[in-house]
Amino acid sequence: MIISELADRSGTAAATIKFYVREGLLPVGERVGGNRTEYTDEHEHRLRLIRAMLEVGRLSIGSIRQVLDALDRPDAPIAETFEVAQRALARTTASDTAEPSTRSLGRVDALIDRAGWAPECHDNVGRGIAAQAVDAFANAGYELPDSYLDAYADAARRVATADLIAVGELADPSDMAELMVVGTVLGDTLSLGLRRIAQAQVTSERRLS
């Protein structure tokens, strides 16, 4: 397909497609004579992935490039690709937030231990993000009890289990790696939307009780 067809099929302006090519996010199309360049279904698939990370995941162009570079390494372990996606999303999640306090980091470490999670979880990028949130609650005048943090950890584990079950149902390692990335980037948005719905439901139930 030519660029105008790719633009129509992907819902992406031709100028934007050319920008993604210049930025190294999208492979160059194949020159077939004169000024004609042809693109494939793989280009359309990559475009949809880029737009999902940019528009829904709110990742920067630089972060998207790092994630795509990881996906384009077929021999890279899935866990490594997953870590790249986590770190890319972390830069968006907490880019303008102050460093977490030692106290809140200690509370998150204690939460990890109470949950019985592996020691390497103390090195995960999510530790700092969670501690920043604990600090923000405290600064707003709400000191979160351990029971609240424990409930969130339990919910997070159930969501993470759902992520890994979905990945495990795929046979192709490249598809598995891509779903890990998509699930990491877009799963937060999905969780946010469903949490809003659940809050409305629980609020309605408690008003009726």
Task: Please name the defining characteristics of this protein.
209 residues
Description:
The chain is mostly helical. It has a domain of 111 residues. The protein has nine helices and two strands, in the order ααββααααααα. The chain has a two-stranded antiparallel sheet. A hairpin with a 2-residue loop joins strand 1 and strand 2. The longest helix is centred in the C-terminal third of the chain and has 36 residues. It is elongated. The termini are far apart. The model has no long low-confidence stretch (mean pLDDT 86).
As a whole number of angstroms, the C-alpha radius of gyration is 21 Å
Strand order of the largest sheet: 1-2
**Low-confidence spans:** none
How much helix is in the residues?
over 70%
Order of secondary-structure elements: HHEEHHHHHHH
What is the terminal-to-terminal distance? Answer: 60 Å
Sheet with the most strands?
2 strands, antiparallel
Strand content is under 5%
Helices, by number, come to 9
Give the CA-based shape: elongated
Chain-averaged pLDDT: 86
Oligomeric state of the chains present here: single chain
Number of strands: 2
Structural class by sheet pairing and helices: mainly alpha
